[in-house]
Amino acid sequence: MNPMHAAALRGLAILGGALLLASCATPPPAPVVPAGPPPLTDAQIVEATQAAGRDGVELVVTPLVDPHVEDLRERAEKAQAANRPQRADRELLKALAITPDDPDLLQWRAELAVLRKARDEAEALAKQSIALGPKSGPLCRRNWTLVKLLRESRGEAENAASAAAMLERCTIAPPVRM
User: Fold this and answer.
1) Between the CA of residue 37 and those of 41, 128, 146, 155, what are the distances in Å?
2) Buried/exposed 25-61: b ≥16 CB within 10 Å, e otherwise
3) What is the C-alpha to C-alpha distance for residues 149 and 140, in angstroms, rounded to an integer?
4) How many Cβ atoms from other residues are within 10 Å of residue 141's Cβ?
5) Which pTM value belongs to this model?
6) Which of 31, 102, 133, 170 could bridge 140 with an S-S bond, Cβ 3.0-4.6 Å?
7) Do 146 and 49 touch, CB atoms closer than 8 A?
């Protein structure tokens, strides 16, 4: 065989191999577009949670609050209004030292934990509040709204649906009066 033909054949073989390899390459995957609306921010999660506690038509009985705990609650409110969730949380910890099983304080701490970027802690505190708190009414709605939104933010659709079902049970329709 002529050396020029051999070189041409080698060149064609290399080119053919390169084309063969190129045809096997897969294109880069298309970017994943999340389904549904964009995830909520921490502040939006807390606002939605607190709004769920303001809705409702049921009668709510609130127990008397220790005056020292009330002072600590006010200090926590001021700290939260000043966008200082860590300080507000410290005030609530002091209040919980006086009334350790207060489900409202635990839920408030859960909401502050979201603002402090401690979402796992937030869900644990909300679950603790659920265990100690009422099974209907505004606090129940805040508890389950927060759990539902945290689960949705992690992409746990099935767990979020379970929390949504529990949330539905928090509101008891008033009796029909004739």
Assistant:
1) 12, 30, 18, 12
2) eeeeeeeeeeeeeeebebeebbeebbebbeebeeeee
3) 14
4) 22
5) 0.75
6) 170
7) yes
CA distances 148 to 100, 118, 145, Å, are: 25, 16, 5
Nearest to residue 137, comparing CAs of 113, 103, 160? Answer: 103
Q: Residue 138 and residue 31: Cα distance in Å, rounded?
A: 41
Euclidean distance between CA atoms 154 and 146, whole angstroms:
13
**3-state secondary structure at position 89:** helix
- Going residue by residue through the chain (178 aa), what tens digit of pLDDT does each one get? 666 656 655 665 665 665 555 666 555 565 555 556 678 899 999 999 988 888 666 666 677 778 899 999 999 999 999 999 999 999 999 999 999 999 999 999 999 999 999 999 999 999 999 999 999 999 999 999 999 999 999 999 999 999 999 999 998 777 777 7
Tokens of 1: 């065989």
* Pairwise CA distance, residues 87 & 128, whole Å: 21
- Token pair of 73, please? 């609650």
**DSSP state for residue 39 in the 8-state scheme:** P
